[in-house]
Amino acid sequence: MIIAANLKTNLTRSATHEYIKQLQTCVQNSSQEVLVFPATSSLDGYDTKITIGAQNAYPVEHGAFTGEIGLDHLNEFGIKTILIGHSERRHILGESQEFIAKKFDYFKEQGFKIVYCVGEPLAVRESSKEEMLTYIYNQYEGIDTEYENLVIAYEPVWAIGTGKVPTLEDIQDIHKELKKKSSAPLLYGGSVKVNNVKDILKVENVDGVLVGSAALYADHFCSMIQAAEELGKN
Ligand SMILES: O=C[C@H](O)COP(=O)(O)O
């Protein structure tokens, strides 16, 4: 399974080094695929079997794009994994589907593993299932769903950082629908914690989890990796 931590705007570079060090023991004998997305300023050359990915980068090698980093900055640390389409970049930082698709194409051309996020806000969730699926399917616009290095993360926006989680039946239902769009591994994200991770991982068509706040604690993230290991679902 894929167990991924999105550290968002948390943990400085030295704190991230300490964090990765703490994770070493639990990944050593684990057969899970563990990904960590540190803050941009915490990207570095980490000596670990954990895959380090970028939360964001501009689709360019380098150039005049104030505040952004490009491919050269990722290459410096051998980073070949990137998160694209996260709801915080869509809704807070205003990334359009058109720009997201452009970013996707660029990093696909570079052969990156892309963890591509989709998910609906609460108002959409509270509408009909059909409207909800249409909303989510629009987030596939311009995206090559057959790209061999693609991982999709379904993250209902209303579940992110709120402690609210869809029912297991709802997760199963939406994952079943999304698998029809792409056979890529499909992660669930949104208020995944130590106490619910096992039940979520057991759901059909859940191929892993993308964890935010609970992953900030190395011991909690380790417990989630161990939970996946215990389930023996690879
Ligand atoms: O990328 C991770 C998600 O946004 C989930 O965040 P959360 O676990 O804090 O709800």
TrEMBL record:
The Swiss-Prot or TrEMBL record describes its family as follows: Belongs to the triosephosphate isomerase family.
Superkingdom per UniProt: Bacteria
Keyword S-adenosyl-L-methionine carried by entry: no
Protein encoded by which gene: tpiA
- Catalyzed reactions per annotation: D-glyceraldehyde 3-phosphate = dihydroxyacetone phosphate
- What GO terms describe the biological role, i.e. biological process, of this protein? gluconeogenesis; glyceraldehyde-3-phosphate biosynthetic process; glycerol catabolic process; glycolytic process
Record-linked PANTHER family: TRIOSEPHOSPHATE ISOMERASE
Q: What is this protein called?
A: Triosephosphate isomerase
Its keywords, alphabetically, are: Cytoplasm, Gluconeogenesis, Glycolysis, Isomerase
Name where it's found: Cytoplasm
Against Pfam families, the record matches this protein to: TIM
Q: What class of enzyme is it?
A: isomerase
Which GO cellular component does the record give, naming just one?
cytosol
- Xref: SUPFAM superfamilies: Triosephosphate isomerase (TIM)
Name the job this protein performs: Involved in the gluconeogenesis. Catalyzes stereospecifically the conversion of dihydroxyacetone phosphate (DHAP) to D-glyceraldehyde-3-phosphate (G3P).
